[in-house]
Amino acid sequence: MKLKALLIASVMALAPAASMAGNMTVGFSQIGSESGWRAAETTVTKQEAENRGINLKFADAQQKQENQIKAIRSFIAQGVDAILLAPVVATGWDEVLEEAKDAEIPVLLLDRTVDAPKDLYMTAVTSDLVHEGNVAGQWLVDAMNGKPCNIVELQGTTGSSPAIDRKKGFAEAIAGHDNLKIIRSQTGDFTRSQGKVVMESFLKAEDGGKNICALYAHNDDMAVGAIQAIKEAGLKPGEDIKIVAIDSVPDMHLAIAHGEANATIELTPNMAGPAFDALEAYLKDGTVPPKWIQTESRLYTAKDDNMAIYEKKKNLGY
Amino acid sequence: MRQTLRSAFKRTTPQLLILAVVLLLNFLVFPDFFSIKFQHGRLFGNLIDVLNRGAPTALLCIGMTLVIATRGIDLSVGAVMAIAGAVAASLVVDGHGWGTALIGALAVGCLCGLWNGVLVAVLRIQPIVATLVLMVAGRGIAQLITEGTILTFVNPGLIQLGAGTVVGIPTPILIWLALGLAVTAVVRRTALGMLIEAIGINEGSSRLAGINSRVLLVCVYLISGFCAALAGVIVAADIKGADANNAGLWLELDAILAVVIGGNSLLGGRFSIIASLLGALIIQSVNSVILLSGMPPEFNLVIKALIIIAILVIQSPTVKHALYIIRASAQPIVPPETPKELKESTQ
Lengths: 318, 347
What we know:
Chain A is an alpha/beta fold. Chain A has helices at about 1-20, 35-50, 65-80, 95-100, 130-145, 160-175, 190-205, 220-230, 250-255, 270-285, 305-315, and strands at about 25-30, 55-60, 80-85, 105-110, 125, 150-155, 180-185, 215, 240-245, 265, 290-295, 300.
């Protein structure tokens, strides 16, 4: 009897300790490192975990769903406190999420969502792609302040959801402002070299670029390529042609610092921060987070200290 | 000499005609297409862009033509481009000069070619499988070199190779023209070209005839690797950075397509590098039509596919033969006056 009481007492003493963030073990199944942003997300997630004293178990799936499923199963077997998942595709997760639920391990989705019943995961932390396009469009509306402006648009990979949504958001923001007009729109495949090639043809097709007043690129890499094309055509990027893009990669901040670009909207690599916040709140007093946590789409312009941001970001793995 | 020029012209007539038609299409969608200006110390115009942007494909198809002439194929060229770009970028970032970077990248390209050549010629693995190995693994190797980032550099010498000009002409144009002419001269002014064709037509007999097919095959893949490395350096220099994920992505397919549009058979044998280079220019001109037309990007691949199917159908042996029959049978039976009279009588 005494022994039993002692056991109960010790379990009760241990229980809150186990649920405190300090001793938490979290598994993170990452897609891979297909882009600089993805590499930065991994780096930031590891930093966030370290700062909070969370023991992070990291698994790189090398773009394969079966590797992610394997990783989640091994996290369940190890009895982690929570699982972070950046899903490579949207479908096919029901079974493994069910297993996690049976083991009472909360799953938090990062950066992308899945097509599965909402009760199978705790929350999804993603950015709003349409909103990002919206912020870019709004910046141009404010910067032009009613002056007429011909815009060229460098789209992402045709048919990809960032390309569709960032185009939509931008179009919504400039709708109703008759001074702003998109005169050419073509895909630059999200790459620097295609961004440069397509911008070259835009410049030639629009009277050597004299007819173009602003460039909107669906990502910073294409904008960086386009900046080179504009320079080679003898124009001043940032002045003759205003440039706004999305992602906030270090090289874009460098360009803004040099006056060669005007604005970028951050797709934050820190998806893990809000996820850990939600998790800690849940474990502390059972606060159930909303099913969708939207990350901030912050606008950076020449007013910010872009050199400092460049220095801070350049070692994140972009 | 005049004889060879005439036969070369005859061989490339279909490609020249197709190129003329595609350039005309460009002119129709954008009337200023042929205007070339000299501004900011460089030639500036759409025609220059076609020559300049066609450089990577043109360089790749020089090596690819030789490989295909031996009845082989090299799928690894796109990945080799990524590796070479990564090597060049990491060398200049480490503080070496652009010359060292260029030589280092070309040496790595040759090494990749050697690897393919040994797999094909010595271990007798089918070329499509042998080169697939490096196609898949190469991008991973390039990623390891750049550590997963876009490795940017500011070395003016290296940038000059991709984005610079020599007497106003973009450097890539001069590079692919020079290499194309040099390789053509070497294979055509010596027996080398004939020996390569012999391997492609019947390797067994050519070996019995005393051709050292093994060494020649290795050399052909080595040249392909060299061309790919040069293309990779140009692409990296152009954007002042090595993008291991995207440099040369799917470009091996464009290079093979250029060789096919150039009228070279994938079954090996007779080849023409000049025709392949014209093929590369045709592909780039098609890309130019798409960009200048201002159509939504959803149509890009459809338009490209339609134009290329048309080109291939016109060149197919069956259609050629049918055209020949129609022309031959039409001449004696229908004299040129007949349609006119018919037309008058019906009115």
